[in-house]
Design goal:
Length: about 110
């Protein structure tokens, strides 16, 4: 699902709200999550999961083509940990409804 599909679904379920207001609400929610992560805060959405930031220290990597050592700068990366309700829903009955089920190797039927 992309952002415009989310906005459309919310608009369909809430005909009393203007489409432009729903777009603004969704944008504000995403912006607040981004701002909180940029400050180093953790964002928790009960039943869904938690967003946090992980520090990746500087290290020495290798250029895969030449094998030459390459310095990789430190960086901060967003991290998402799913909540128990989301994991249960994904692993319980009715998962992948409307989509092709995947076999044990991750391929569709």
């Amino acid at each position: 699902m992309i952002k415009s599909e989310l906005v459309q679904k919310l608009a369909d379920e809430n005909p009393n709200l203007f489409h432009r207001d729903i777009e603004r609400i969704v944008s504000i929610v995403f912006q607040e999550i981004s701002d909180a992560l940029a400050r180093g805060d953790r964002v928790e959405l009960r039943g869904f999961g938690a967003f946090s930031v992980k520090h990746r220290p500087a290290r020495v990597g290798r250029n895969p083509r030449s094998g030459e050592a390459v310095h990789i700068e430190e960086k901060w990366a967003p991290f998402f940990k799913s909540g128990k309700e989301l994991r249960d829903r994904l692993n319980g009955e009715g998962r992948f409804t409307g989509a092709a089920k995947l076999d044990s190797e991750g391929f569709g039927d």
